[in-house]
């Protein structure tokens, strides 16, 4: 492979990818921005939605780990699903990540701007123009960091996400210690069951929001070409990341149920952790947790940029997007055109969205629409590992559980959730989520017509022990 089409190899270690996976799921941002939407559909069953979505999500993390052992490719699910199932499904998996990431960067830049301003003066957070400017500045700064390469990005993540997770851990411990004296309700085991959902459709809608909480850990897979011992380290980083955020999400949602009423959560308007911080530590608490949310939001903007630019890089290298997307900067070895295009388009959409509706409306619609796209490409990855590794499934109990049963059930759950949620969603959410997926058919048809070799690759069986396929290569 020529240097102009190569990412810089061996710049990240296993610990770096685990931290990137945690940053990708953005624990503080997800709790702060998504819990109001989750409580709206699940009520006191919010912890159950995260629990029963987190277990299959860990199965999908195992799927990514095993798929990555066979082929090291920055396109991740785009490459693996296309090879194991069908190029059309692989392309749509890559496209789903591109559009969901772009949507998220619009939704994510909003709290980045408003929460930053609220640290200085709460009234400034309601100034739409100022929120737009500050959010755009943060986004541009993260685009620059991503452009400077994976090594710089990882160093930034250790600082931002390290501080974020430390703050969350401290408030989690203090919150549970103080809960007996300040709780507005008492813990009930039904919070982890299914009694609070409005039928299967209600559970599917809640699980769709829960999927948004977890989404982003797979950035470790998109960084595999830049990771040392990539066949194992990148996948392990994703698994460790899911386990960490699973614990944080479940514990914090239980804490929210204990300390905040449903009416309080419903009126949070994208800044729930400020209210939770005030309940745990009146006065400074809200400010400190708001700092964690700001850091989390900025960090996940960075990892989302990595995911979308690496996916577009892999697609450009294959000719399924214009080949200019597959060219890297001579010095930094980062995808130049992909980074510039994504940054410009996201900022333009962010500015437009900020003047078209309230923060709460934008976040709620974007979260549900992204949830559809997440369920689609994660579910296909779970099917892909079972299909491509089927010759290995019955060689050991471990293989059957970790390559077959767990990822397979995770895939079934996510694809069921995808179908079920379509019937429960509003026309706006379905229009955004499914409409943007359908748009991908146009560039896919053009790439197929232009003769991209991606669409002629044979579907193959994989052997994670003996086979290693380089990016863009063929498995023999």
Automatic annotation (TrEMBL):
Membrane topology per the entry is: Multi-pass membrane protein
* Main location group: membrane
**Superkingdom, taxonomy of origin:** Bacteria
Q: Which UniProt keywords apply?
A: Cell membrane, Membrane, Transmembrane, Transmembrane helix
Transmembrane spans: 21-43, 49-67, 88-110, 130-150, 157-177, 197-215, 236-260, 288-308, 337-356, 362-387, 399-419, 431-448
Subcellular location(s) per record: Cell membrane
What is the protein name stated in its UniProt record? APC family permease
Species for this entry: Kutzneria chonburiensis
